Amino acid sequence: TFISDVDGSVQYFAVRPMRPARDDDHAHERPALFLTLHGASVEGRRQASVYRAKTWGHVVAPTNRRPFGFDWEDWGRLDAMEVLDHAERIFGTDPDRTFLTGHSMGGHGTWHLGVTFPGRWAAIGPSAGWRSFWSYSGAARYEDASEIEALLMRPTNPSDTVRLSRNFLHHGIYILHGDQDDNVPVAQARFMKKHLADFHDDVAYHEERAAGHWWGDRCCDWGPMFEFFGARTRPARDAVDHIEFHTASPGVSAWSRWVGIEQQTEALEFSSVTIDLDRAARSFVATTDNVARLAIDLDHLAADAPVEVTIDGQALPSVAWPGKG
Asked: pTM of the prediction?
């Protein structure tokens, strides 16, 4: 249990602790962390219980605000990320081997958190998840929206998985679904498979034949998905020289690795940055859209000389290292 920084309430999360292997193959490694998001009206204790203990990482299951936890969006998103931060500190896990998965509503949460915080994961595995409120519930949208209607819809942009989907390029994806699912149609998974195929080359896909929405613990604790996870790590910060990052609100998600979009020109419209680092020349070249304030974290560079920055074709004066001169 812990005191939540969101509202001062007592919250809990459940853990299926790692079971160390009998050999010493992984003794030198920091454990991985598998953050798993539960479905509607399920809790973290039940979610954690469906997993067998892993020999190389801890399974951590947050419980979000009752009864449905905002679909793992809004406060639910805060709940999940707060638990992730607590679990990383408690168990000393490897941040470069942090994985995200979940079933049903948790599958949607996996799509949502995966696209919203792309720099946090080595890979994600949505199971039986819908991609958005609109695709699942059929909620109405304005047809031929007026300027005022479009303005009113802007706050929903952080929920638009498809418009933000190039953020998935940060990590691998394993999509899992039953082909006879009568709760979350398999069309949700098939759409994302087809959509991602246009630009993403690290996507695995499995449809379980004759399986409905819940087909036993395997629809969460799916062996091939964990094998997929085990073959992937998040690149170290000092090995990342290219970042493409999209956000619809810096208030929801502002950073990916060492680059941040801190202010938009048009609030709650989609913003993006593509940035490349030449470490030998200590130079950054960035292209942005709808960005009024861009931030670069220089901690991954040696503090021995100024850096050069070019944004949208405009070269800035040499940027002195913070604290120098």
From this structure: 0.94
